[in-house]
Amino acid sequence: MAIELAPLDIVARADDLRRIQDLTMPVPPDTARQRLSWQLTYADRPGFAAFGATDTDAGPVPETDARPLVGFIFGDTSRPGSWWDNHVRPAAEEFGNAEVLDEALEIVELHVDPAHQGRGIGRALLKRLMTGRDEPWAVLTVIAGNHRAWGLYTSLGFTEMSKPFLFTGHDQPYLLMGRPLPLPAAG
User: Fold this and answer.
1) In the predicted model, what is the mean pLDDT of the chain?
2) Which of 22, 34, 112, 158 is most buried (CB neighbours < 10 A)?
């Protein structure tokens, strides 16, 4: 299987985003619709970027004439006072890391279809999103206990920057992780 990374229009590919998220983080249908609606608001934010991974060996999906999306990532420049910041900042403050949230690349979503996991797609998407950014830090949250995702992030230089905390409406604890930018030059 050959994978291609390219800029992604999350509004045009909203159904693909929801399909992959339903596979990786299943939630009730109403919650999934609300989550997607909220996520689509990111497309207009400063510093927004999104990339998708498609299977170039697969033919186009007839309804869209696009190759199947097997993974995606998006993020933007963090905004103090946002919903995410209001949840994460107190946890970061306990670790003395709140200042990195002021002007960071906030990695909002990263999902890879489970049938395609373990092939380096998540790593490639993370590297692509973090390349060429002006922010001094990249930050993300991970479900505490998700050892596979934690392992990917730490292998790319992310470190824990908080104790476990809860987002409103979630019963699973999360951790804040971050790493300085820019990425080192390939060599």
Assistant:
1) 88
2) 112
